[in-house]
Structures are given as structure tokens and as C-alpha cells.
């Protein structure tokens, strides 16, 4: 059956022959089901429909279900509903090195549109962390299909559950000297033409938003300018906030410090907009270059940040080369450049949390700023707590361009 699907296709365009659609899969449950699914594709689509209103979650769930379903058809030649525990162990090994690469991995690790013939379900081998995340999502899929009466059992429920130590935070964290390198590179960007000024303004604002706001890259793409609002504290001082709809559809209030608001006004003026956003303004938090006001995708925002880090890394390497430094000192330049190249947007969130904690900001306030716990803002007592959080964040967590 390995030739049944020579080129993997996205599940929305996938059509399966009767022997692979799972209508009589060996793990199908007898009796009535709670979903109107006659075959595996419909069952997976029913599972995905539950999270259709959360773009980030939907895309992650679809990616993992799609990868497994395509692998099952091509490699062992089975429908999803016939997979065994042993099959899933083989699949997890496959994630570490999807072969043959020509069939499974996009050329050069590039992301292509789902309708593009060059689209592939992988961009390269998955890290151990990504492998674990994939299996967690698939376990949720199988558990739901069992609860829905579609499958008789969950083949992943037999897996040994091991407690794993969290990776040290330092692996996804920029020390302050590296953070200074990133800011210095952004400030070195050319600003002679209109387009160059737009690129500089966007890079500066995006870093400010990710760092001072501690936002996730997905939150930058899905929230809007109208989510900024102001209110007066008990002393009559006007304070600005950003009402963020974040992970798990949870809302949190992020202190929009005076420094963050200055950068917001600077960016909006560069775009020809009024300095302050209006209530319910639908403009995105970060604009494309040019006249478009369409929100940037998470992938586009990620690419911008990676480009900034790559530019900063190149600047560090060039400085080391110009100094003609060799040996241990030269290796230090290379190590710093390599660290910057590994960094991603989420590193800024970890860096923000670490730098806030290093600045002796109360850890409970750091937790609330990053949305690690839900906020209740209705009582006067918690309102006073929020004012303290705003004041101390403003004092101790700064961009210092």
C-alpha cells in the first residue's frame, strides 16, 4: 500500500480508496457513535470542528492529525482506525527523521501554501520537544474518538508516561548583552527611503510589543489596535492597558507602560495614523509594508523576527571578523551569533519574563503579565492590585531603546 499516495496532500483535498478510508477499521467501535462519521476523514474533521474558532489551535491540531493520517496510508498502508500501539511507536520514530525526505519534507525547509504542489507535511526532523507535543495532541485525538464511540480503544493509552524535566530556561532566553545586540541592529537599519523607514519602524515596534508586552507571536497577529484602552487609577493617573485574547481563549490585561505607549504612538505616526488608537479600532497591531491593513500571519511575523535575529547575528560575526579575533575570544563572537540565530519570537517572551524577574518585579505580577494565570479585575481590591502591577512593571521592565 505504500504506493497508494505517492505525494501527500492536505486532508481537505484528500480522497481515500475504500480499503484505506477506515469504514471497517480493525479498531472501530461496534454500535452507535456520537458523531456522524462513516470514515476516518469525517471523524478527524469532526474532532477539528471543535476548535475551528481558535486559528492557532486548529492549525496545530490539523497538522498533527494530517501528518499521522498521511503516514498511516503511505508507510504501513493502514487507515487511521486500524493503527496499533506498535504502529504509533514506529510513527514517533518517523517524526525524528521523516524519510524519504523528497516525499515528506518541503524543499529547503520552506513553507508552501496548502494548495501548492510543493507542499509537504514536514519542514524537517522534529525536535524531541516537538515529538512529545505531537504525541500529546494525537493522544487527545484518539481519546476523543473513543469517547465519541468511533474507536474501540486508544492505542496511545498504553504508552509509558514519564515525568520529564523541563528544559532549562536559559536555552530559550536572551541574556541582556544579546538583547542589546538585537536592539542595536534594529537601530542600525537604513532609514533613507519611505520603505526603509517602514521596515525600521515595524521591526522596532514588533520587538517592543513582544518584549514589553510579553506577547506570544500568535497574539500579535490576532489582537488589534482597538484592544488598547485607558482608565484612571485611584490617584487619578491615566494608565493604558492592552486587553489580550490569548492561549486557550483566555483574556488577560497587559500593562501598556508609558514606554510602550510612546513606541505605539511613534509607530502609528510613521503609518500616518492618529497617535492613539480609537476604541474598537480593527487595525492590526503590526502592519504589512505598504498600504495594506490586512493582519500579518503568524508565519510572516515569525519570519520578521527571525530576520531580525539573523541580522543581529551577522553584525556580531562581522564585528569579530573586523577585530581579527581568533582563538577563545573569537569563539565567543561565534557562540553569541549562533545563539541569536537559534532564537525565535518566543525567546522574547521568555526573555521578558526573565528580565522582569531579574529586575525584582514580584513574580506574581510577572505571572499575570504573561498570562500564566487568569485575571479577575472586577473588585476594587483586585483593581488596586492591577494598578500596582502596572506601576511596578513600568518602573522595572524597560525597553531603553
Topology at a glance:
Layout (H helix, E strand, L loop, with lengths): L39 H10 L5 H20 L10 H11 L5 H4 L23 H20 L28 H12 L6 H19 L4 H6 L5 E5 L5 E8 L5 E6 L1 H13 L27 H25 L4 H16 L2 H14 L4 H8 L9 H17 L5
Helix pairs in contact: 2-5, 6-10, 7-9, 7-12, 10-11, 12-13
Pfam families: Phage_integrase
Keywords: Cell cycle, Cell division, Chromosome partition, Cytoplasm, DNA integration, DNA recombination, DNA-binding
GO molecular function, one term: DNA binding
Rg (C-alpha, Å)? 24 Å
The total beta strand count reads 3
How much strand? under 5%
Distance between the first and last residues' Cα: 59 Å
CATH superfamily of the largest domain: Intergrase catalytic core
Q: Extract low-pLDDT stretches.
A: 163-170, 373-384
Tally of separate domains: 2
What is the typical, i.e. mean, pLDDT? 84
**Largest sheet at a glance?**
3 strands, antiparallel
Order of helices and strands: HHHHHHHHEEEHHHHHH
CATH topology of the largest domain: hpI Integrase, Chain A
Global structural class: mainly alpha
Instruction: Give the overall form.
Output: globular
CATH class division of the largest domain: Mainly Alpha
Q: What percentage of residues falls in helices of 4 or more residues? A: 40-55%
CATH architecture of the largest domain: Orthogonal Bundle
Order of strands in the sheet with most strands: 1-2-3
Structure annotation, total helices? 14
Amino acid at each position: 500500500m505504500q504506493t497508494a499516495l505517492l505525494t501527500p496532500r492536505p486532508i481537505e483535498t484528500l480522497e481515500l480508496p475504500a480499503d484505506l478510508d477506515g469504514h471497517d477499521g480493525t479498531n472501530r467501535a461496534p454500535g452507535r457513535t456520537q458523531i456522524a462519521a462513516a470514515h476516518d476523514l469525517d471523524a478527524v474533521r469532526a474532532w477539528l470542528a471543535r476548535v475551528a474558532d481558535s486559528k492557532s489551535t486548529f492549525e496545530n491540531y490539523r497538522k498533527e492529525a494530517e501528518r499521522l493520517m498521511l503516514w498511516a496510508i503511505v508507510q504501513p498502508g493502514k487507515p487511521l482506525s486500524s493503527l496499533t500501539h506498535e504502529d504509533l511507536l514506529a510513527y514517533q520514530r518517523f517524526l525524528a527523521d521523516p524519510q524519504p525526505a523528497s516525499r515528506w519534507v518541503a524543499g529547503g525547509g520552506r513553507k508552501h501554501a496548502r494548495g501548492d504542489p510543493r507542499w509537504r507535511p514536514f519542514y524537517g526532523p522534529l525536535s524531541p520537544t516537538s515529538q512529545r507535543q505531537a504525541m500529546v495532541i494525537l493522544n487527545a485525538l484518539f481519546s476523543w474518538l473513543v469517547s465519541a464511540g468511533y474507536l474501540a480503544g486508544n492505542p496511545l493509552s498504553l504508552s509509558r508516561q514519564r515525568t520529564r524535566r523541563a528544559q532549562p530556561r536559559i536555552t530559550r532566553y536572551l541574556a541582556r548583552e544579546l538583547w542589546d545586540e538585537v536592539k542595536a541592529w534594529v537601530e542600525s537599519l537604513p532609514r533613507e527611503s519611505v520603505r526603509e523607514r517602514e521596515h525600521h519602524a515595524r521591526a522596532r515596534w514588533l520587538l517592543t510589543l513582544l518584549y514589553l508586552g510579553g506577547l506570544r507571536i500568535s497574539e500579535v497577529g490576532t489582537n488589534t489596535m482597538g484592544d488598547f484602552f485607558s482608565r484612571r487609577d485611584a490617584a487619578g493617573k491615566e494608565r493604558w492597558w492592552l486587553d489580550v485574547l490569548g492561549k486557550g481563549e483566555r483574556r488577560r490585561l497587559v500593562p501598556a507602560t508609558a514606554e510602550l505607549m510612546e513606541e505605539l504612538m511613534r509607530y502609528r505616526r510613521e503609518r500616518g495614523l492618529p497617535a492613539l488608537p480609537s476604541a474598537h479600532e480593527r487595525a492590526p497591531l503590526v502592519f504589512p509594508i505598504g498600504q495594506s491593513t490586512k493582519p500579518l500571519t503568524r508565519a510572516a511575523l515569525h519570519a520578521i523576527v527571525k530576520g531580525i535575529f539573523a541580522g543581529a547575528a551577522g553584525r556580531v560575526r562581522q564585528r569579530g571578523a573586523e577585530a581579527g579575533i581568533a582563538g577563545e575570544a573569537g569563539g565567543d563572537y561565534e557562540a553569541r551569533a549562533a545563539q541569536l540565530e537559534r532564537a525565535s519570537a518566543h525567546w522574547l517572551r521568555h526573555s521578558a519574563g526573565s528580565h522582569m524577574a531579574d529586575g525584582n518585579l514580584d513574580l506574581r505580577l510577572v505571572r499575570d503579565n504573561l498570562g500564566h494565570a487568569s485575571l479577575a479585575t472586577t473588585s476594587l481590591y483586585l483593581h488596586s492590585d492591577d494598578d500596582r502591577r502596572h506601576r511596578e512593571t513600568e518602573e522595572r521592565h524597560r525597553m531603553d531603546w
